[in-house]
Each structure stands twice: as structure tokens, then as C-alpha cells.
Design goal:
Helix content is 57%, strand content 9%. The longest helix is centred in the first third of the chain and has 18 residues. The chain is α+β, with helices and mostly antiparallel strands and 214 residues long. Strand 1, helix 1 and strand 2 form a beta-alpha-beta unit. Helix 1 packs parallel to helix 10 and helix 5 packs antiparallel against helix 6. The protein has 10 helices and 4 strands. The protein has one domain: Glutaredoxin, CATH 3.40.30.10. Strands 2-1-3-4 form a 4-stranded mixed beta sheet, sandwiched between helices. It is globular. It starts with a strand and ends in a 15-residue tail after the last helix.
């Protein structure tokens, strides 16, 4: 079985974009996705403290281009993304909620709901009440979800995933792995698909390769 590891954080618009594209890639290649929720700030603290500071104090020109770049990619992917006031949000509770969703095989609808709530509807996903409402709308039991979300061991799992990514050579999110091959960023998804395709037993043709068949 082909396996694609995807490390993501709900505070990251690039994770939102890669979340959907990874699922499309998995469908086309027959790969299984292992979702790895991580805390971006914990990764930056470990490997790139200046990057952590730059998230909060970005040059105006860089910030303007980042907003355009996100908008362009959102249009390409068919989603709506606006960076809410106060971005990035504290995503710890939302990530803990994802551990509960994974346990009930509801990570996809839960994550879609959280990403849309934050980047489209500007809801505060740092609030437990907001997350519980989103979780119940995707089929999770409210009481069980809240208990799991607030359990210190659940946060430990998120932090363990974060440390795991650093140990594997990661430095940011989203990050994907095909075996031991690491791919960073939403823009790397075509390379991820190529790697999965080449690792499969199926004939796999990427754009630009069609002429090589004749």
C-alpha cells in the first residue's frame, strides 16, 4: 500500500490548500493518507525561531504578496481563503480535536469544517465552543469530543507529531512524505503525485510526459 504522510496545522492557509490537493492525489494514485496534525509554532521554535517572529512581524511588501499568493492559489484550488484579523490563530484546541476526529475516521469532514470556519467565515477556532459545534456537525459526539480535545494526552500526541516532523528533517508546514522522501509546501504537490505514481505498479503519466509514449 502506498502511504502519504501529511503534516498540517489549521492556522496555515497552505495546509488548507494542501489538505484538499493531497486527497485528490491519493485518489488518483491509490495512496493511503496518514494525517499528522502538528503545531507550527512548536516546529519553528525547534528549527527556525526567526520564522516564528516573522509570522507576527512581516515586511509590508512580503505581507501584500503573501495575501495575493494565497488568493491566487485559493482560486486555483476552488476554495475561499481570507487571512482573518489576528492571524495566525492559536490552533492547539483545533488540532487536539483532529486527534478525536482521526479516531472516528472523520478527519476529512472535521478538517474541512475547521478550515472553512477559520479562513472563509472568520470564526475563532481557538474557542472550544466553536470547535464542538463544528465537530458535532460532522458526526462527532459533543461530550466525547470535548473530553478528548481537552485531555492533556491528546495535546501530547500533537506535540509528538511536531517533534516527529522535526526529527524527519521538517522545518515547516505543510510537509508531505512518500517513504523517506520529504516534500515541503502546497506547491510541491505535483512532485508528491509523481513520487507516488512512480512508486506504484500502475503506468503513471505526468504533464509533459505524453510525448515519450510514442
Amino acid at each position: 500500500m502506498l502511504v502519504l504522510d501529511v503534516y498540517f496545522d489549521y492556522s496555515c492557509p497552505w495546509s488548507y490548500l494542501a489538505f484538499g490537493r493531497a486527497r485528490e492525489t491519493a485518489m488518483r494514485t491509490g495512496a493511503e493518507i496518514r494525517w499528522r496534525p502538528v503545531l507550527a509554532d512548536r516546529i519553528f521554535e525547534a528549527v527556525n525561531p526567526p520564522r516564528l517572529a516573522s509570522r507576527l512581524a512581516m515586511d509590508k511588501r512580503q505581507a501584500a504578496y503573501q495575501e495575493k499568493d494565497v488568493s491566487d492559489w485559493a482560486r486555483f484550488c476552488g476554495v475561499s481563503i481570507t487571512l482573518p484579523e489576528g492571524w495566525p490563530v492559536d490552533s492547539k484546541l483545533a488540532l487536539c480535536g483532529s486527534i478525536a476526529a482521526i479516531g472516528h475516521d472523520l478527519i476529512v469532514p472535521y478538517s474541512n469544517a475547521v478550515f472553512i470556519a477559520y479562513f472563509t467565515e472568520a470564526q475563532d477556532i481557538s474557542q472550544a465552543a466553536v470547535l464542538t459545534e463544528l465537530a458535532t456537525s460532522t458526526g462527532l459526539d459533543a461530550k466525547a469530543f470535548e473530553m478528548k480535545m481537552r485531555d492533556p494526552k491528546t495535546l501530547e500526541q500533537v506535540l509528538s507529531n511536531s517533534s516527529e516532523l522535526v526529527d524527519r528533517g521538517g522545518f515547516g508546514i505543510p510537509t508531505m512524505f512518500v517513504g523517506d522522501d520529504m516534500y515541503f509546501g502546497n506547491h510541491s504537490m505535483p512532485l508528491v503525485e509523481l513520487a507516488l505514481g512512480q512508486a506504484s505498479e500502475n503506468t503513471f503519466i505526468m504533464p509533459g510526459e505524453h510525448g515519450s509514449l510514442g
